[in-house]
C-alpha cells in the first residue's frame, strides 16, 4: 500500500489489491491487459497498464513478453507475470492448489533475471518457457517442469526443440526438480538438470 497506493495516489485500493493477488496467483501464465480489464470491470485499459507498471516499479512482480522480432508485437502480445519471491506468492496466492511446477518456473525466472537483461517466452506451434537474448541474438532456450515424465515429455521437448530450430541453437535445457539426464532429439542436444544444480553454476 505504501510503495504503490500512497506513492501513486491510487484511490481504488481494493482493485489494486485484487489485480496484484490475481497476478501473483498465476505466475508463469499468460495474461493481457484487456483480459484483466474485463475480469475486474475496469473502465480503462490504460489503468491496468499503469497498475502493472507500478507493481514492476515496486519490484513486486515482473512481466515477460512473448518473443517477436517486432517490438510492437512484443508490446501487444500476451505477457507472463513472475513474482519477486516464491514465499510471497505461496502465502498470498488465491489458488487452492499450489502448483509446484509454476513455483519452480518462478524460481528459474529469478535466476535468469540475475544473469540476463532480455528474457522472453517463445510460442509458435508449441511453447518454450524462456529464451534469453544477448547482443541482439537469442543465446539459449530453457524449458521448466517439475518432473519430466511420459505424460508431458512430448510437449516439453517439442516446445524446446521448436525454439532451438527457430534460433539456430544446438543445445537446449530442461530444468526439473531433481532429474539429471541428456539426449539427442532431431540433432539437437537436450540437457536435463535439477534447478538447484543450475542455480549453483
Task: Write a structural description.
With 201 residues, the chain is of the alpha+beta class. It has two domains: 1-98, Winged helix-like DNA-binding domain superfamily/Winged helix DNA-binding domain (Arc Repressor Mutant, subunit A); 101-201, Trna Endonuclease, Chain: A, domain 1 (3-Layer(aba) Sandwich). The protein has nine helices and nine strands. It has helices spanning 2-8, 13-25, 33-39, 45-57, 71-76, 86-92, 100-115, 153-167, 195-200; strands spanning 30-31, 61-65, 79-83, 118-123, 127-134, 137-144, 171-176, 181-185, 188-194. A six-stranded mixed sheet has the order 4-5-6-7-9-8. Helix 3 crosses helix 4 (45-57). The model has no long low-confidence stretch (mean pLDDT 91).
Which spans of ≥5 residues are poorly predicted at pLDDT below 50?
A: none
With strands numbered from the N-terminus, the spatial order across the biggest sheet is 4-5-6-7-9-8
- What shape does the CA trace take? globular
Cα end-to-end separation: 37 Å
So how many helices? 9
Elements, N to C (H/E)? HHEHHEHEHHEEEHEEEH
- Average pLDDT, all residues: 91
CATH third-tier fold name of the largest domain: Trna Endonuclease, Chain: A, domain 1
Which class best fits the helix and strand makeup? alpha+beta
Major sheet: 6 strands, mixed
**Global Rg:** 18 Å
Provide the CATH top-level class of the largest domain: Alpha Beta
Number of domains: 2
* DSSP strand content: 25-35%
CATH architecture of the largest domain: 3-Layer(aba) Sandwich
Count of individual beta strands: 9
Amino acid at each position: 500500500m505504501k510503495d504503490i497506493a500512497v506513492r501513486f495516489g491510487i484511490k481504488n485500493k481494493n482493485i489494486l489489491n485484487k489485480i496484484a493477488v490475481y497476478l501473483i496467483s498465476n505466475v508463469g501464465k499468460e495474461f493481457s491487459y484487456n483480459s484483466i480489464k474485463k475480469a475486474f470491470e475496469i473502465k480503462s485499459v490504460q489503468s491496468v497498464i499503469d497498475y502493472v507498471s507500478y507493481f514492476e516499479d515496486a519490484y513486486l512482480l515482473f512481466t515477460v513478453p512473448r518473443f517477436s522480432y517486432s517490438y510492437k508485437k512484443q508490446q501487444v502480445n500476451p505477457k507472463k507475470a513472475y513474482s519477486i519471491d516464491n514465499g510471497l506468492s505461496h502465502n498470498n496466492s488465491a489458488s487452492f492448489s499450489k502448483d509446484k511446477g509454476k513455483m519452480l518456473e518462478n524460481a528459474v525466472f529469478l535466476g535468469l533475471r540475475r544473469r540476463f537483461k532480455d528474457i522472453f517466452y517463445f510460442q509458435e506451434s508449441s511453447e518454450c518457457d524462456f529464451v534469453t537474448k544477448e547482443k541482439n541474438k537469442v543465446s539459449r532456450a530453457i524449458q521448466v517442469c517439475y518432473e519430466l515424465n511420459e505424460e508431458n515429455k512430448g510437449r516439453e521437448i517439442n516446445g524446446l526443440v521448436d525454439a532451438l530450430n527457430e534460433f539456430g541453437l544446438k543445445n537446449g535445457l530442461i530444468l526439473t526438480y531433481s532429474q539429471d539426464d541428456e539426449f539427442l532429439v532431431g540433432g539437437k542436444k537436450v540437457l536435463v538438470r535439477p534447478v538447484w544444480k543450475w542455480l549453483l553454476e
